[in-house]
Predict the structure.
Amino acid sequence: MGVATTRSCERLFAAMGLLESAPIVFEMVDDVPLGGVICALPALLSFGLLRHTRSSFSLPNGFYPIETIFLVLAFLALARIGSLEAMRYEAPGEWGKILGLDRMPEVKTLRELFPRNGWRVRRKRQVLFTLTATCGCITAS
């Protein structure tokens, strides 16, 4: 199942196609590295980061909800993690605590989702802008 996997039953149901997406459950934790990025969540939501995700994008049934994918990318940009490849050196369980899951998605999982939805991110500074522009909450002038 992988490192830092604690919700094995939900992952099993997702693998069998019996779970649309895992519920987000936040737990009480201490000393999560880069945990301050969650303080930006109200601002991201007020700018409309997740406003049109369900109507504009789709994922097949699986463990990760579509909202989690957007939050992962936004939080990684805020934490100044330079690329998806740099996620390999981050603690997946610690990021999972920030996201309300047992671990964050692997780079391989995210790479598979991008072409399916027509997403393309070229530079790390474009990540947050691309996400918010895609969701229709800001317009380029």
Notes: The chain has one domain: 8-134. Helices lie at 8-15, 41-46, 53-56, 66-78, 92-99, 107-117, 126-134. Residues 136-141 have pLDDT under 50 and may be disordered.
